[in-house]
Write a structure and sequence with these properties.
It contains 10 helices and 15 strands. By secondary structure, it is α/β, with parallel strands linked by helices.
């Protein structure tokens, strides 16, 4: 029997983080105007933006390589793409694969002859703003339809003939419509990273402005969450520091022994600062114990990742954003 588990049961880290604060939702099936989002491409170093397809009908397919329902749906999506692409349909796949299965994506795409763009779930704004009812929307395969005028609707899970017919009917209706009065999806404005002045472990004040002109990765962590991405960040520092990337850790309220334990575990060489509540709220927006921000050399937040999962894809996703940062200098 085909089955799928909800992300809450698979991803206890998300559950831990959601206990700190609620998550903003767009509502039920009709989600209103679509917001732009960015995800890293699964097959190359590029970034995929929903706004790249403004004025098109976009079917966002949320799927996984090891999901039997996704495997059954993929051939149908190929046929749908062939039928409606000439009429303005774009299929955009977003994979919910994990660290242990992400390597299977290229073979999966080749097996099913999938040629549309496919991005990775980076636990960023797509996950926060679209997958906000994890008992259903977080399961796979799920589909979201964005009209030419930028309205988005959640079509539900595709696990039966009636589900597929509903999906195809919605696509057919959407490609037949002319753009309405609503504005097509606009690129998301990048916001400036909030200023900070925090002490390092020797008590010296370190300011965000000290890193002016350098791309920055800022990781907020605690003694309980430092292992979520500690090894990935240490490797990022080793691999990209010579290319100008600065990694900074910001500990949230641990004592010296706990901080040193985290540093020793991963051989951390980059600066570690003592965070405060004001900085935590200014950056993360809630009292959460983990988040990672990728900040461009001009001080704009390119990506804010505020969730982590067991068997996460930090090892795949973080270098993709690091490459983007150093290439934009």
């Amino acid at each position: 029997m085909l089955s799928d588990k909800s992300p809450i049961s698979k991803h206890p880290r998300i559950l831990m983080l959601l206990l700190f604060a609620g998550v903003a939702a767009w509502g039920a099936a009709g989600l209103g105007p679509a917001k732009d989002f960015t995800v890293p491409a699964a097959t190359d170093a590029s970034l995929i933006h929903l706004s790249d397809y403004a004025g098109k009908v976009v079917l966002i397919n949320w799927w996984r390589t090891d999901c039997g329902w996704s495997q059954r749906e993929s051939p149908k999506l190929v046929g749908l793409n062939q039928k409606y692409r000439p009429k303005g349909l774009v299929i955009l796949g977003i994979s919910d694969d994990h660290g242990s299965t992400v390597s299977q994506i290229p073979a999966y795409l080749k097996r099913y002859n999938i040629t549309w763009p496919v991005g990775l779930n980076d636990q960023g704004e797509f996950r926060r703003e679209m997958i906000v009812q994890p008992n259903e929307r977080g399961s796979t395969p799920g589909n979201f339809l964005v009209t030419r005028s930028g309205e988005v609707t959640y079509l539900g899970l595709d696990r039966g003939d009636a589900d597929w017919q509903k999906l195809e009917n919605a696509v057919a209706a959407a490609v037949a419509e002319s753009p309405g009065k609503a504005t097509a999806v606009q690129p998301r404005d990048l916001v400036s990273a909030p200023a900070f002045s925090l002490p390092d472990l020797q008590g010296k004040a370190v300011r965000l402005s000290d890193f002016k002109g350098k791309p920055l990765v800022a990781n907020f962590f605690t003694a309980q969450t430092c292992d979520w991405s500690g090894s990935v960040l240490a490797k990022l520092d080793r691999d990209y520091s010579a290319r100008g990337l600065q990694v900074v850790g910001i500990d949230l309220f641990d004592d010296d022994a706990a901080i040193q334990s985290c540093k020793s575990k991963f051989g951390t060489k980059y600066p570690v600062l003592r965070g405060d509540e004001a900085t935590q709220l200014a950056w993360i927006g809630e009292r959460s114990g983990w988040a990672t921000f990728f900040v461009s050399a001009d001080g704009k937040i390119l990506k804010a990742i505020k969730d982590s999962i067991d068997d996460g894809m930090e090892g795949t996703v973080f270098p993709k954003y690091a490459d983007q940062l150093v290439s934009r200098r």
